[in-house]
Amino acid sequence: MLRFAVVSMDPKVLQQIADLIHRAARSRDMVVDVNIFQGPGRFLFSYEPVYDMIYIDDEIPRFSVSQVVNRLRKRNGIHGS
After folding, report:
1. What is the pLDDT of residues 18-52, one digit of tens each?
2. Pairing of strands 53-56, 2-8
3. Which among 10, 23, 34, 67 is least surrounded, fewest beta carbons within 10 Å?
4. Which of 28, 39, 29, 25 is nearest to 5 (CA)?
5. Residue 80: what pLDDT?
6. Cα–Cα separations (whole angstroms), residue 6 to 18, 23, 53, 80, 81
7. CA dist., res. 19 & res. 42, Å (int)
8. Tens of pLDDT, residues 1-17
9. d(CA 9, CA 32)
10. φ and ψ at 44, to 5 degrees?
């Protein structure tokens, strides 16, 4: 099973991406777990390093994707750019 996290401020984007992942998985007889987070704050607060893939919408106010990625790297003990 593949685990996905989808992060966006827009509920429509969250649902669209989750639907695309589920549709692609069904077409390949794969089992997936898709967790959606409305906003990077919620994602970072509850983050655990269990995801195989993380989708972060680039339209997030007050956060850049690179800021979120850098925080994830720190929490996972990964250094570098």
Report:
1. 999 999 999 999 999 999 999 888 888 888 889 99
2. parallel
3. 23
4. 39
5. 56
6. 7, 15, 9, 24, 22
7. 21
8. 999 999 998 999 999 99
9. 22
10. -65, -35
